[in-house]
Amino acid sequence: MIASLKSWFISQPNKDHLADYAKSGDNRHLTKLVALFGNDLYHYLVTQSNEQLAFDISQQTWLKVMEKRKYYQPQDNPKAWLFRLARNALIDEFRKQQRFVELEDNTVIVAPNSEQTFDYAAFNSALIQLSFVQREALSLQQEGFSLEDIQQITQSNHETVKTRLRYAKQHLKTILGAYNEQA
Questions:
Q1: What gap in Å lies between CA 24 and CA 9, rounded to an integer?
Q2: Contacts 24+ apart (CB under 8 A), 116-124
Q3: pLDDT at 94
Q4: Phi-psi group of 144: left, alpha or beta (phi > 0 → left; psi -120 to 50 → alpha; rest → beta)
Q5: How far apart are CA 24 and CA 33, in angstroms?
Q6: What H or E segment, with its residue span, contains residue 183?
Q7: Alpha helix ranges (H) inside the chain
Q8: pLDDT digits over 38-58, tens only?
Q9: Burial of 58: CB neighbours in 10 Å, binned 0-12, 13-18, 19+
Q10: Using the 8-state DSSP alphabet, how is residue 143 labeled?
């Protein structure tokens, strides 16, 4: 009896602030969400686009969270739901600008002729050369998402995600190897 009273007075912390926001609409939960995931979301979007577009899509994503909060179903990883909203908004924007071209996973990418030595700028340049789906899978993995989370965000099957990651890493090695040979 004391245990049940204790749990009644002391609420256990709920880590799914998105579910709390979806239920209540309380902006305190939205503020916590932005604090928890805002930087990660922006970083993901910057790796897929540019700074200005990433900022715009990030803002659109938070507006969509407010607009679609009633459709959220509590799940293991609310961050994955948030990133899926952002991904869909980014693809929609690319389609509006007629910039979205989804290359096949086995597309060969030729390294540019450049005098750069291997550094952060070279890595960014190599990353930009990857197809959208490869760069996206690699960026999501670097954000700490599991294969299952990436599968959920991109709405792809498990083997497709693994293949995209493998090709992305192979292409980066090829491109960055070319930079290192020139140095």
A1: 20
A2: 116/179, 116/182, 116/183, 117/179, 117/180, 117/183, 118/176, 118/179, 118/180, 118/183, 122/176, 122/179, 123/172, 123/176
A3: 83
A4: left
A5: 14
A6: none
A7: 2-9, 17-24, 27-48, 51-67, 78-96, 120-129, 132-142, 147-154, 158-182
A8: 999 999 999 888 899 999 999
A9: buried
A10: T
Q: Which of 44, 21, 26 is nearest to 145 (CA)?
A: 44
Is this prediction's pTM over 0.70? Answer: no
d(CA 35, CA 18): 12
| Residue 168 near residue 137, CB atoms below 8 Å | yes
Write out the DSSP string of 100-111.
-----TT---PP
What is the rounded distance in angstroms from the CA atom of residue 169 to the CA atom of residue 162?
11
